[in-house]
Amino acid sequence: MDFDPEQITLSEVFELFWDAHNPLAAPRKSQYMSALFLHNAEQRKCAEDGAKRIAEQNNGAQVTTKLLPYTGFHLAEDYHQKYILRRHRTLENELLEAYPDYVDFTNSTAAARLNGYLAGHGSNEALARDLPHLGLSAEAQAQFRALVRR
Questions:
Q1: Residues whose CB falls within 8 Å of the CB of residue 142, separated by 6 or more in sequence, listed in order
Q2: Is 109 in contact with 139 (CB distance < 8 Å)?
Q3: DSSP 12-41
């Protein structure tokens, strides 16, 4: 992940990570594990501080998120990319018009945000702010709102 430290601190990035998933949930298989791949001692300290906070908030429960050294990055197979969004063909097709190259679709902020909202992440306020800027027609935006209505 790239971020601008003048906009958000490393500690705040890690807080977003810890708050965006259930770090106590054990994965069904190792390829679905939650993990942080750390580049340096500063990142390790922030990650460990977050894990400690989560454990303390949960009466000492074991944090299952792995803290591992970064050794390289490999994309998941194509069929895993934007999996939830791709289950909604109308939405996927609209985005594929804007991003006809599958790599561009996979890497697009629009697809990432829409996939995240469909997965239940993000607030209603953030959705209302983001949705008009993600490249969907008015009709697709209405369909999307109906899918993520909370």
A1: none
A2: no
A3: HHHHHHHHTS-TTPPPSSGGG--EEEE-SH
| Token pair listed for 96 | 């594929």
Residue 14 has pLDDT above 70, yes or no: yes
Domain boundaries of the chain, sorted by first residue: 10-69, 78-148
Span 20-42, pLDDT tens digits: 888 998 888 887 889 999 999 99
Place of tokens 């890690």: 14
DSSP conformation letters of 96-130: HHH--SHHHHHH-HHHHHHHHHHTT-S-HHHHHHH
User: Which is it for the CA torsion 66, 27, 18, 113, positive or negative?
Assistant: positive
Measured between alpha carbons, how far is 3 from 74 in angstroms, rounded to an integer?
A: 20
128 torsion bin: left (phi>0), alpha (psi -120 to 50), beta (else): alpha
